[in-house]
Amino acid sequence: MRIRAVLRRISMRSAHGLDRGQGLVELTLTLPVLLTVTFGVLELGMLLDVTHQISSLTREGASIASRGAPLDSVLLITTTNGRSVGLMDSGGAIVSEIEVQNGVPVILDQVASGGYIGTSRLGLLGATASALVGQGLRSGQLYYAVEVFAPYQSFTPLDRLVGAIVPDVLYDRTVF
Predict the structure, then answer these.
(1) For 176, which of 34, 62, 125, 150 could close a Cys bridge (C-beta 3.0–4.6 Å)?
(2) Would you tell me how many other CB atoms lie within 10 Å of the CB of residue 70?
(3) 149 phi and psi, to 5 degrees?
(4) 110 or 90: whose pLDDT is higher?
(5) CA-CA distance, 109 to 127, in Å (whole number)?
(6) What is the pTM of this model?
């Protein structure tokens, strides 16, 4: 009996509109979580898009270089096609010609985009391409490497959180 009376009283309160602010309270509690998840998904999607674009740029550049195009032309094509990821502004590309001599990859020629001040992660001109040692490259073969350094800036309000996880410059390379 007592339970019925309590249930009747609760239903009467609802009928009289005593729970009018409940929806506002629930929205206030869930909105920050929903916005964080939404912005996180958008940021991740943008990050994956930029990563995919620079990967495509390196593959395209290395493929063109391996067909005998001059390194300057490969660099121009790569940076021009990479305009959408900021290669012409604050990013850059480096194209290298590498020959494997006695099992050691040596950088024979290297060109870098004009505005980029960074250095190759493979090595400097005339030096051993230490990042490629032990990668199964054949002696006497010529290889071409294209490295792309693309700036990445968060576009959502989560930049403090994303900044701790994602580097300021995204990097990719392809060797043909």
Answers:
(1) 62
(2) 13
(3) -115, 105
(4) 110
(5) 10
(6) 0.82
